[in-house]
């Protein structure tokens, strides 16, 4: 038996795993863009109510669904996509940004 017969052919990762990883990376770019836009927004009247609502909407409608998509992409059994390394790195960055923003919010809210 030759070694060519023992080697299994390389399988392409399923298209769903590739699409999920690409969707996560694109959504994360949107999340980071909106966080920087919100960070630069100044408070107006009513005790910054509008800015608080915008941050809450960002967390609930952008950050958490994007984080869930990233975790799902990472947990896919076919995480052999070419984007797997980028997904892992971006998940770490996203979680660090989320923790830093939560700590900053807690420091200002409870002090």
Number of strands: 0
Euclidean distance between termini CA atoms: 73 Å
- Alpha plus pi helix count: 4
User: Gyration radius, to the nearest Å?
Assistant: 20 Å
Average pLDDT works out at 82
Helix content: over 70%
The major sheet is characterized as: none
How many distinct folded domains? 1
User: Which H/E pattern describes the elements?
Assistant: HHHH
Give a brief description.
The chain has 111 residues and is mainly alpha-helical.
Q: Which labels suit this protein?
A:
single chain, 111 residues, mainly alpha, 4 helices, 0% strand, elongated
Describe the structure.
The structure is a single chain. The protein has 111 residues and is an all-alpha fold. It is 77% helix and 0% strand. It contains four helices and no strands. It has helices spanning 3-6, 15-39, 45-75, 84-109. Helix 2 packs antiparallel against helix 3 and helix 3 runs antiparallel to helix 4. The N and C termini lie far apart (73 Å). The mean pLDDT is 82.
